[in-house]
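dude i think i finally got it to work??
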Amino acid sequence: MNPAYDILPFWVIRMIMLGLYATGQVPFRQVLLHGLVRDEKGQKISKSKGNVIDPIEMVQKYGADALRLTTIWGALVENDNSLSEDNVRGQRNFANKVWNIGRFAKLTLGNKKPSKVPVTELHKLDKEFLKELDSLIVKTTKSLDAFKISQAIEDLYQFVWHRLADVYIEEAKDRLREGDKSAQYTLHNAVLTCLKLLHPFAPFVTEAVWSEVGGEGLLISADWPK
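look at this
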């Protein structure tokens, strides 16, 4: 069950009591509480106040992934979540960044899957980057297992935008142009892994990029990275 914290005593507890009374069984064993959804002025979003953002309009303007990411970002029990068009627009920019990374990988690597390079033959920068990628997999897995969904997407956002796009790709561009096998393997591996990790949060753009960069089958059926 996934309610806001303000209805814990009024809805969740009553459902448990009624379930035990009527069936003798607990209706659910896990409750994931999240903060209240507020507008850009800090007011709780509700129909009665007339400050509701039309989700259909946001999807048409910025895409479903952008709206999904906005509702997840900062959705902690101790934090109320601010939902505004500016926030949705910002997550649209992140979805575009993911698309551009995939487009760069497609243009750089073509349709061929780079051969695996032994660890001993990896460039120093590639070896360090892949270690960071392994750490990201562990952190994301732990966050999701602990229902820290917002923490998971924040870690992914920082890695994909700043570590992969801003730093690694810029550092490896010359080697990629020269056909360096270590850089090609690292880029391909990083892009596919990041798409797998991002897929639960932004399924549409990641599925589209996955098919463009040579992912096998549908991304939704791919194994979780290990």
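The mean pLDDT is 87.
im so relieved honestly
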